[in-house]
Amino acid sequence: MSSLSIAVEDGLTITRRNLVKVKRVPELIVFATLSPIMFVLLFRYVFGSAIPIEGISYAEFLLPGIFAQTIVFGSTITGAGLAEDLQKGLIDRFRSLPMAPSAVLVGRTVADLALNALSIVVMGVTGLIVGWRIRSSFGEALAGLALLLLFAYAMSWLMATVGLLVRAPEVVQQASFIVIFPLTFIANTFVPTNNFPAVLKWIADWNPVSAVVQAARELFGNTAPILQTSDVWSLQHPVLYTLLWSAVLLAVFVPLSVRIYRRTASR
Question: How many angstroms separate the first and last alpha carbons of the chain?
Fold first, then answer.
């Protein structure tokens, strides 16, 4: 059996282990599904009553932004989970087993990808109830979901690196919040950016979260002429920009996190 097939098999084993853990701790599923529902309802009826958008309902404008925000915040689960495993000595147990070094990280990120997929499904159902509609074809809608999950997976590897470096779940969550909160709000997530101050608008236009949101809106058919206010390359080609960011994140943080894990596990 080749080293690649061994690594894949070991990664799937760890994935099953993490999914079983979720099954045995149902609170994880409850909070992973309740939070997206809460965000959809709050933003739909609080912001929606104050932000009219010509040519499109606020529900259709909002849902792609909520999708993007949730998957970005969901990536912190990866970092916190790895930090918790390090703190409890579980990584030492894995080190004693004959498994590929990348298996723990692959298993963690793939399991969290499944949680992100579940969150998107729950948010989508909630969105349909409050007025969101997909206006594009079935294939384009699937492409939108796939793009969201790809970006979520890339972000999970970034947070895996943070979790291996920090080692305390509470610190991972607090440190991530400081970065992720402005990243998701200085963007086109909840409001159009055409009225932003010049500096914030420039940041929002090149923010990868804005590209993910714009790409999702286009692929779900949730667009209107008034939303085409930016001529920057990132928002004119949001799908390509998102793919480039995902590729860069994976190319940098997959080998980096594996290297840090090897060094950490060898101590």
Answer: 29
- Pick from 13-17, 158-162, 195-199: least confident: 13-17
Place of tokens 């190319």: 251
CA distance 267 to 251: 26
Tokens standing for 239?
Answer: 């799908």
| Residue 177: CB atoms within 10 Å | 12
Task: Quickly list DSSP for 147-205.
Answer: HHHHHHHHHHHHHHHHHHHH--HHHHHHHHHHHHHHHHHSSSSSS-STTS-HHHHHHHH
pLDDT in tens, 211-222: 999 999 999 999
Identity at 94, one-letter amino acid code: F
Alpha carbons 42 and 18: distance in angstroms, whole number: 31
**What dihedral do alpha carbons 75, 79, 81, 82 form, nearest 10°?**
140
Which residue type sits at 222?
N
